[in-house]
Here is the input.
Amino acid sequence: MAALHDSGEHPETSDALWCLRHQVADVDRATDFYVRQLGFRLDRQNPPHTRHLSSGGLKLTLSAGPSERNSMSDHCERGSEQRSRIVLHVEDIALRIENLKRAGTSFAKEMEVSPNGKHIQLEDPDGNRIELFEPSTLVPPSPQRMDSFRQFVNEWLAPILISLTILGLFLGAGALLLLVNK
Here is the structure.
């Protein structure tokens, strides 16, 4: 398969990522949800069927689903299995959850905690999944700390382990000689 750009450059062309599009049953209701509940900015309106929103570097296009325009697919049917979702980075997930619950937002399940961070899923008014994610505060060790650890292993731990291994071999050999000489 040929590369899209053999030159290695990343020009702003039609094959560059533009946005994520969600089909919704009611564009105004969905826009209100994303702007008021999740803090998106309304960038552009193409009434009556499309709204362009953004949050940080994410561009989201909300476009009318089958209840407003028959030419769209039936993706908006509530309860249909959906594998993709928007993941929004948040600073204080517990506070965001509390504020969203107070505003009447329901969540797919409780917040989960993993080594990568905390996350929870909710749905927009049309059933499109959204994940709120607060990364873990665990910081990988710095190169300086790794160099200190390597130095410790090389200068202290490795010689001790080698000495214990040799001692074990001698003790094992001694025990074997005792058994043979009996």
Q: What stands out?
A: The first strand starts at residue 20 and ends at 24.
